[in-house]
Amino acid sequence: MPLLRHALLASSRLTRPLNPVGILAARMSTDPTKYKFNHTMLRVKDPQASLKFYNFLGMSLVHTLKNPDLKFDLYFLAYDGAQSVSKKNHWTDREGVLGLTHNHGTEKNVNGNTDPSRGFGHVCVSVDNIQAACSRLADAGYRFQENLTDGRMKHIACALDPDGYRVEIMPFNPIDETQDVAETSVETYRMNRTTIRVKDIEKSLAFYEDIMGMTLVRTRENPDEKFNLYFLRYGRVPSYSEMTATPGQNPNIDEEGLLELTYNYDTELDPVQVPRWERRAAGACARWDRLGVKWKKRLTDEKMRNSAFILDPDNYCIEIVQNETLKKHADQ
Fold first, then answer.
1. pTM of the predicted model, to two decimals?
2. For the segment 201-212, what is each residue's pLDDT rounded down to a tens digit?
3. Which of 59, 108, 136, 200 is most buried (CB neighbours < 10 A)?
4. Which residues belong to the active site?
5. What is the H or E stretch that residue 310 is in?
């Protein structure tokens, strides 16, 4: 019985051992293998400017939720073309969704990307021909924090959206093979991952693996530059090529729904002012209750009874909602 075997294995990363009976009971109430890292939520000041930017990157508006009484509006974007990973799926049955929230009256709040409020990292879009993709963005007047020719890493770029959130651009193909290619197709793009900065990597890995049910698929340690990267996702067990990939390889570049944890050495005491960052996953809140998570909002709290919020070790918000496609199948 794989679930029982897994439940009885105590993680070496946990700061306190979980009760094996509690783990088993929690897993029986829901199936973490069906969870999805659905979306990352960014707070924006001008929704129309943000929608225009992400539309230009090839994303489509797949759902809108306006709440005038509560003074906020939500916009959900995803790659939805013929070559997309989750084309035409219900918005809760996808990975790689980008949520934009416009909270009325918060236009002057910081976005968490610059000192002294540095905490949230960035989102990453993978593209076919990176030189052509970057030229297309620049020609349209969009800004870059880092061009392909800047810094040590010549195979990535970092664009800025209208609110100054960083959008990392990474290539599917080796850059020496695409330097003379003038065209790029947004139909092939992926919302590959979200990166957050964490203080205690052991606590964060324990939380996302043992509590949230994600799988660590790849690690990149950079002792010379004093930072490590950890890539997690839901779904299949990582392949041998993923686990043994060299720093110059990225076997997950064509995927969506990855979470990257960045641990910068000696930053444990740095303040982290957390912006509104959310992840939606299908599942039962009872499981997390049994595992002793820290709640920001339970399903029964306040006016919105269709979502709950958990806090991770760095106090990033994780929003939990029902995968409507799975619910529909279960009700039939």
1. 0.84
2. 999 999 999 999
3. 59
4. 168
5. strand 308-311
